Structure formats: C-alpha cells, structure tokens
User: What shape does this take?
Amino acid sequence: MSEFEATTGDRAFALLQQCLPTRAFSALMYRVAEWRNPRFKRALISWFMRSYRIDLGEAEFERAESYDSFNQFFTRALKSDARPQPQDALLLSSPVDGTMSQFGTIRDGALIQAKGRDYTVAELLADDELAARFWDGSFCTIYLAPHNYHRVHMPFGGRLTRWSYIPGRLFSVNPSTARALPKLFARNERMVACFQTDFGPMAVVMVGAMIVGGIETVWGGRITPPHRRDPEPLVYQPMQPLDLARGEELGRFHLGSTVILLAPAGALRWLPQLAAGAGLRLGEPLAATPPKNNVVA
Assistant: This one.
C-alpha cells in the first residue's frame, strides 16, 4: 500500500474523531494552555520540548522560563533574521514552517486533499462567487506539525480585501486524517483572508484543528475560541486599508494545523524542486509570479 493511501488505522482514527465532542474538548484544552500557574506551565513546556525536540535557539526568547503560559510558548516569535525572504520580489514564498502536503492546479474547481480524496474550492471558501476567481488556478496545502513554528506570514505582498470565519468541526489535520476523512479541510473551522496582489487575487486559508483550535489574525485578534456551531460564515470587510508585505505576520495558530494558498489561473509557476511530503521553512521560495504588467484580473 502507498504511503499516500489510507490504512485501516487511519480510518479507525478518523471514525473515533467523528464520535468526539471536538469543539468542547478543544475549548477546554485552550483554557489549560492559557493557565499561568508557574509550576504547571513549566512542567507542560518541559514535557513538550522533550517530546518534540524543540530548539529555542531561533526564538526571540531562548529561555522557556520567559513564557508566561504554554500558549505563549507555542506561539513564540522567531528572531528577526531567522527566516529571510527571497531576494527576487516576484517569488511567492512559504508562509510557514511545515510540510508540503499537496500542491498543483485546481482542476475544474477541485483541489487534492490526498490520494483519492478531492474537495472543491467552493466547499473550502463557502462562497461560490469567490471560488470562481480561483477556477483552474493554483493551490498548495502546508501542514504544520506540533514542533513547527506556528505563526503565519504573507507569502506575497498584498492588500486585505475581505476575510471570513467559517464555523466547522475540529478534526485533526495530520496526514493520517487527511488520507481517511473526506473533505477534511472544508469540514473544519477556518479563516479565509483574501488579498489583492500584483498577480491578482490570493486567498490564505487558516484551517483550525483538534486540541486548542485557536486562530488569530493581526487585524482581528483572536477569532477562536469560542467555536460557533452556526453553519453560516461571517464575512467582514476591512474598516481601513491594510497592506501587508511579503514576510509580514498575518496570523497564528494555537497548536498544529494547516494553511492553504489559492491563486488564479496563470498566476503561479511552481518551482521544480517542490515535492509533496517535503519539509518547508518560512520564506522558502515556492513559485514564480508574472511581472506586474501581466496581472490576473
């Protein structure tokens, strides 16, 4: 069996998650991760660092004692020079540290989740009109494991045009669940930020996940928790223009999750060294974009 096909264990884990109260469990864990009891937070941070071999050498604060809570430790900032951006201004860069799960062309409005598992842009964005802007465009899905840096940065400079919060479940987004659970990223809670760039529209989707499940943005602060059950998305327009340069922080996750990037047809040319399953670092080049005079409408 291929490593990209669901195993019996994958399917059993996915079934178990569907039986769990993922929102309530994640909200409880968020409160635990915010607890500032010195002895408790020291023990939790120490356990996490040992379990996931965390090196704070690149962090803005290199001592675990500098963090007032586990959440503060988990969303720690890096030193300003830790992740340089490409010198070529026309390159789209990785918005996070993580693993390239899938990337390629959006074919007839469909994205690849895993082998044999597709879902549509309209399902992901919960907006048919917005999804039409990315029909036959490009996408990439990047998975953030617990040991990764969990702030999300701009892959390309742009102006925020709208953003939305889409309620949903909080299943794990690890590779096992992605292989086994249909339409995973379109079922989980998520934030969709749309930007106008020199190559046209760009969407950055931050997908929530089980355990804590917190999402923040630099313009709206904490979005979740609480975790809404209302199925209707909340759509917002910026109250004033917000321009973010490539490499600037746009948001952060509280514990592991996934980022999905969308671009219109003809906007991106993926670089030849990219491969599904390969590790990525924030700022690493992903794709070339067209010159400014070839902007996609």
The longest strand covers residues 158-166.
